[in-house]
Amino acid sequence: QQQILLKERPNGMPTRSTFQYEETDVVQPTEGEVQLKTLYLSVDPYMRGRMNDAKSYTAPFQVGEPLNGGIVAVVTKSHSNGLQEGDVVTGMLEWKEYNTVDADAVRKLDLHGVSSSAALGVLGMPGLTAYFGMYKIGEPKEGETVVISGAAGAVGSVAGQLAKIKGARVIGIVGSKEKADYIKSLGFDEAINYKTDNLKEVLKEHCPDGIDVYFENVGGEISDHILPHLNTFARVPVCGSISSYNLEKGERDIGVRVQGFLVKARVKMQGFLVRDFEDQFQEAYKALASYIEAGELQYEETIHEGIERVPEAFIGLFKGENIGKQLVKVSEK
Ligand code: NDP
To answer: Any idea which UniProt keywords this protein has (predicted)?
Structure first.
């Protein structure tokens, strides 16, 4: 079977030579273990941070070791009472075609009738991130103005629809016309294309009453344009800042202009990690599934076929090549 290792730490944008493919044996399970065939493998922006040799909230990947992340897999052999052959599970697993792990390391999926791939998107980590960021920190109220950057991605597209459910006016910022059309089709009130629109002018036009919630996914220049519009007591869930993830060593990060706006408007700006809300995951899964069932929450996936396309899928995140959740389909059930 094939597995993917971190070949070298990237400086700036990752390339094909960040990754190394290697043949390795499929391991037989022993007592309490299961053998899993990978169906879907998730590529996520946070993995770029783990490629650096820097202390952070998750340990760095090691050069020469397999990469890992969220995976949906089917049980092909079971030596555990809890799981049977054919069960579909998810967990943090290594990037290989077959993983053999303790049965406790994975969770059996109960997907409420949607595709198992959703466990890595709308009904997985990105969906939960949108839910907690928007509902526990952003707390949008009816009639308020909510702006979301990275709005056509896995987190942003869900965050926007959750704000709509609460009756807010929602404006999304995206990097292409196709994505602008997509988020409008989801019910976003306005879409701004930061590559072609004059951000300064369009924000003035679309946010005449200022901004009450800014769901921050990208940082950098885009956010520099948004922050001056924050209303008194606005909330800013700081989910990520993807525009800075591939800065080369020595390049200056952004953020120097933030503080002035926060003080002036007494803004609450809070960074968060989805795992801070672990004790409420069940509540969130249920709520998200019920919104999908009611037709209030839609989702899109960009799926590349074949384990050989993992580097392309990952690098594509930083080039805006995905709509909704980016996944790689490794094999059929
Ligand atoms: P996405 O599906 O949104 O994919 C990334 C998208 O980001 C791209 O498609 C692109 O869209 C946009 N993008 C890439 N580079 C830039 C750039 N330089 N400037 C502006 N936009 C850019 O990924 P996710 O939904 O998985 O993640 C979104 C954010 O949420 C990330 O910052 C991520 O790190 C963060 N996150 C945080 C979590 C937490 O616990 N705090 C958990 C999960 C995610 P476009 O074409 O519109 O530019």
So the answer is: Oxidoreductase
